[in-house]
Amino acid sequence: MINDALIIESLPLVYQRLAKGGVFLTVKNGADVNTMTIGWGGITIFWGKPVFIVPVRESRYTFNIINSAKEFTVSVPVNVNLAKELAYCGTRSGRDGNKFTATGLTLTPGHIIDTPVITQCELHFECKIVYHQTMDPEYLDSQIKDRFYPDYHTMYYGEIVACYRTDR
After folding, report:
1. How far apart are CA 7 and CA 141, in angstroms?
2. Which residues of 51-60 are buried (b: 16+ CB within 10 A; e: fewer)?
3. Which of 97, 87, 75, 85 is nearest to 23 (CA)?
4. Contacts with 67 (C-beta within 8 Å, 6 or more apart), sequence order
5. Is residue 160 within 8 Å of 50, Cβ to Cβ?
6. Contact partners, residue 163, CB within 8 Å, separation at least 6
7. pTM exceeds 0.85
8. Are 92 and 101 in contact (CB under 8 A)?
9. pLDDT, mean of each 10-residue run, the chain (168 residues)
């Protein structure tokens, strides 16, 4: 289900959405399913494979789920306005309530992995984690450290095992 042409075609849109409003990162482990908004990350090539890199802070509810699940999905709104839902999922914790009930977002099973995608979005990436690394503050530029931290991210490198659009 790898569609290299679609991945390449989607790069500008993914970067635009990351920079303005974010995209949905969804994780599932057993009955635990959560989505959060990410505004940082990106698609690149590592080890000869397309990889979606997503950062998750250790303090996030998603953190324990993603570590147990070993996979994630990224769902990108293309033509639908999900600004309110993205804002909600980026400012509320799944520890405090069900984001799907609160926003009306729904889930559709993934094609390849067990983690679902956000039904309302039109572009989806299914990813299996092939590497993760927690940031080391010692190597971080002090201006970035002062502006964005003390709660550091773990970077998850997810091999894109499926990429598809649901509006075509």
Report:
1. 31
2. bbbbbbeeeb
3. 75
4. 132
5. yes
6. 1, 2, 3, 6, 7, 10, 50, 123, 124, 125, 126
7. yes
8. no
9. 88 96 96 96 96 95 94 98 97 95 98 98 98 94 91 95 94
